[in-house]
Every structure is written in C-alpha cells, then in structure tokens.
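Why do we bother with a discrete structure alphabet at all? Because it lets us treat a fold like text: something you can write down, compare, and reason about line by line. To make this less abstract, here is a complete entry for Methanethiol oxidase. Read it the way you would read a sentence in a foreign language you are learning: slowly, and without expecting to understand everything at once.
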Amino acid sequence: MLHCVAVPACLGEVGVWVESEDPKLPRSSAGPPHSSNLFLLQGPREEILYLPCIYRNTGILKPDYLATVDVDPKSPTYCQVIHRLPMPNLRDELHHSGWNACSSCFDDASKKRNFLILPSLISSRIYVVDVGTNPRAPKIHKVRTPRHWGPLTTNGTPGAHGSGWSLSLTAHLHSGGFVLLDGETFEVIGNWEHQGEAVPFGYDFWYQPRHNVMISTEWGAPKALVNGFNPAHVQEGLYGSALNIWDWTTHKKLQRLDLGEEGAIPLEVRFLHDPSAAEGYVGCALNSTVFRFYKTAEGDWAAEKVISIPSKKVEGWMLPEMPSLITDILISLDDRYLYFSNWLHGDIRQYDITDRRNPRLVGQVFLGGSIVRDGPIRVLEDPENQQQPRPCIIKGKRIPGSPQMLQLSLDGRRLYVTTSLYSGWDKQFYPDMIREGSVMMQIDVDTVDGGLTLNEDFLVDFGKEPDGPVLAHELRYPGGDCTSDIWL
C-alpha cells in the first residue's frame, strides 16, 4: 500500500507528492485509523482544531502562524487559542493544509498521521509541521520552497509508484501541474504530470483510485488575483472555468471538461466519500453554481449544473448585481448533505443530496456578509425574495466579514466556520475584517431533517490576538475529517 498527501494549489501550477519507502516506521494512534467513511463517522468528538492565521495585508508585520484552538466544551480553555506556532518568515500567506497520511493508508502499519503539510500561497514555502509529538503544541519540522508560485492545498492520497508520497498542487502563472516531495526528507523531486501536460491554472484536486482518476480545478493567474479581484480579468482569460481529468496511474491528462460561463472559477472539488462512487460536486465561485461531475457509461467524464444561486440587484456596491460567490463546499461523511458558503451574500446553505441530480435546500443561516440591512449596500431586487439579513452578533460582538471556510464534525452535528478567504480579497471586500480580525463560529446541524442554527455561545475572536488582529482561514482536526480523508 502506498501513502500520499496532497497539497492543492490556489493559483495555477504545480503539485507535491511525498514518497516514503521505509516499512519499519512505527504506527501511532494519530495515524490514519479509519477503514471507511462510515467508520470515521463514528469517531470521537473533536477536541482541538488547527487554523493557519495570516498577517499579510493587515498592516501588521508579523509572521503567519498555526493556531491550535480548544473546542472541547468540558475544557477550561474552551473557545480559546491554546498554542501559536509562528513561521520563521514574513508574508507567507499560509493557506490550505493537509496530512502526510490519510485513511487510504489504513492497512499500512508503517504510516502514521504525524505531519501537517502547510503551504504558503505567496512565498511558495511549504512548512512541514510536527503535530504527532505534542498535538496541542505543534512544532516546525522542515521548510521547503519549490520553484513554483503559490502552493495552495494538501490532501492525503494513496500513491501509484509503490511508495508513500504527498501530492501538492501549487500555482504558477498559466501552468497548473503537480510536484513530488520525498516523504522522508520532504525534498522536491520533480513534477507528477508529464512534460507539456500542465493545465492553464490550478486550485484544488481530488482523486478516486477505484476509478483511476484525479480531478483538478482552476482559480486564476497570480498576477490577476494577488491584490484583489478585477472583473475585467475574467474577460481577459485570467481566470479558469474547467475541470481537468487525469489518469491516476499513468499521470496523463485525459480530458478538459469546460464548464462554460456558468462554471467560471471552479474552486473546491469533492468526490462522494463512498470509494465506489464515480461522482461528486464542484463549487463555481463567479456565477455561484454547483456542478455535479460523473463518469459516463462510455468511461469519460461529464458535468451538469445542479444548484444555482441567483445574483441580487444592488446599489452602493462595485457592480449593479452581486453574486453570492460560492467559496468553500464540503460533503458530510455519510454522503447525505452538501454544505457551502456564499461569501458575498453572507449565508451558509445545507442541501440534501440523497437524490444526487436534484439537491434540495434544507438549511440556511446568515452570518454577516455584504448585504446586512444596516450596511451601505441596498438590495433592489432579489429573485429569492429574501429580506436583507440582520447583522450577526455573538456575545456582543458584531461579526465582520462573512462565512467562508467550513469544517464539519465527524458525526455531522457541528459545522465550524471562519470568515477569511484570502487577504488580498479580504482587504477589498471586507476592510472591517482586516481592521478587526476574523472569527471562528459554530453552527448546530439537524442531521435528521436538515437545518442550521447558530450556536450563540461559541466564538473565537481572532481580533484579540497578542500581536494584533489576524485572518484565520482553514480548519483541520488532528484525527481526520471529511475534507482530508479518502478511502480505497
């Protein structure tokens, strides 16, 4: 059995694989312990979360850091940051993390989940963080800098080379591919894809070994998005609109699945957790759609739009119409519910996807956003006929920004959310969040009939950090979660 971790890149180019050949390494209790998604569903309640915290674009010249947050209601430090691991450099822009092992390595006793792979979107550095020695107080193990711009995300994967590895998708202007890292030394080995087969842009990716496929998505060119969003750059072809289909075994590019204008800027891609399923969903930011992708009877791949959030006609904003801007999406471990955040409108939605082609909205909650009723933006026309929401206030604090990154508890009953997307876009769309810092909130989930309710007793305020307000981004559990585990 081969082990892999994947770090998808935000912007446009390369990926990272970690290779390991030592079968004698001891297995730890923090290793990939879950034989199936339904087994993980019965896992223990989360006690701590890891979050990268970013100072770039805030006006505070301090290193980014990895925060450890206590989320155990029985703990005296509940809802508090209990540890901060500063990076040794400035202006990294830490982003999406992943593990050096995931549940695809369940039957390999040599693998243990003891390193968090933490990429930097701006500096291109990749930090290997030791979370196995002391999970509540991580420490830096290695630092690597591939010659590619903007590594974004990490996923644990099984390998196809007969040894363990970590796959990291990084970004480079107009060249999206994958880079290999050695699993023992974490040295850069080279590219995963064949020469000349890199795609225009990179962002996220997911794989399904039973169907010998990996699917990657596209954000845009670094020069277009580094300091904010300009709608003209879409017309100039500086943002993506396709799913890229790869042969998992041979690493050959098989298909470019163009989603068209409605699928512009496809970001997070999620296969169903059932390893036999040959389908999943992708959230497309610009026109606020969700596409279902699937394997056809002929053996190639196709996609169909299954959710569309209409834009609202507004005044007082940069454009006459405001899209919802779907950013993060995830699927519950039992493959019953799909969740996503609308970063401009300010709501999180829950869909029952039992009927895969016809998702049904069963839960919605507003947690800030750009159209709060006492703000400067007025909604003139809303196809959904919703009233402008009240501002979100928790424990006396008005929440700046809008719901963005999501993480679901293993049992599906608690949805954690942070408000920062990317510092350049945070600064443009939510300057109050830049000044006040982001927050972490928790939503209670009805897993029987569907429904979302804000937990008004939970708040982690990153505006009160010792070195000043900071932007907290992605959320990770030490023991695996529904966005970092894949099964064979």
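What the structure line is telling us, in plain words: Residues 1-31, 155-174 have pLDDT under 50 and may be disordered. Helices lie at 37-41, 222-225, 232-235, 423-429, 431-436.
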